[in-house]
Request: fold
Amino acid sequence: MEFITQPWAWYVAGPVIAFIMFLLFYFGERFGMSSNLETFCSIGGAGKFVDYFKIDWKQNSWNLIFVAGAITGGFIASKWLSTSDAVLLNPQTVKDLAEIGIENAGATYLPDAIFSIETMLSLKGFFVLLIAGVMVGFGARWAGGCTSGHAIVGLSNLELPSLISVIGFFIGGLVMTWLILPLIF
Amino acid sequence: MSKAEIISWYRIYEMFKFQSFHMYGIIGSAVVLGAVSMFFFRKKVIKTFEGHDIHVKPKKKGMYRNLLGGILFGLGWALAGACPGPMFVLVGKGVVSILVVIFGATLGAFLYGLSKNKIPH
Reply:
């Protein structure tokens, strides 16, 4: 039981992800998360505005079940399988974050400066969350995939478009982390 | 994902700061093992449980779409500290504010659908 409740090392988590991907393909499905966002649009009636969303979303139902599974898994893991909410970070990371105004880094999974209810209810906090979401959604669909579809499936399949996308992910991520985040807080 | 702290905003920050091997190890080992299974799929050694060949749908080509879309995604990823999978895990964890991010991401996908024909691919 101890093994389950401890945070998993990378050499456990990576193979688990690869195994899940294998199972999905083995059962004739795909492994990809961001396409669900389009499915949500279709379910919400976006097909009335844009033909792009006129799809039979029931074909994607398996991926929606995967979403439901992710939510359930998150619930189970945090409710019963975790002993602590702290994340053991590199001390340098904690120091860097304190310098840009994020205190107590690693005490919980998420920084309050972005995710607390009070932050969410402030104008700036709300827009930070919303804009982050829009960039993820727009970017993922533009690039045709996110971390699962490009970085994991695409790179595994040795695809050039995925390599370009992952390089893009890193350009964007580095610019945000090094240049933009210090300006936000 | 919850168990390996992939859903932690801090882990993503740490990764982009190059201060931890954690995320690189996870993605790297998943890709190496994934590549091995892809190899067996292509050689048709492994088929689906119903006996069909496994074809992994190739990604769409295009320098603009992959690079610019990728950069935009990366900006959002580092800010939200979550990509589309972990967002849902965080819902299960009871993080209310992630719903704003998911709403934004759905809106983003909708906006992409709207402007699809006007942006370079």
In short: Chain A touches chain B through 119 residues (CB under 8 Å). The mean pLDDT of chain A is 90.
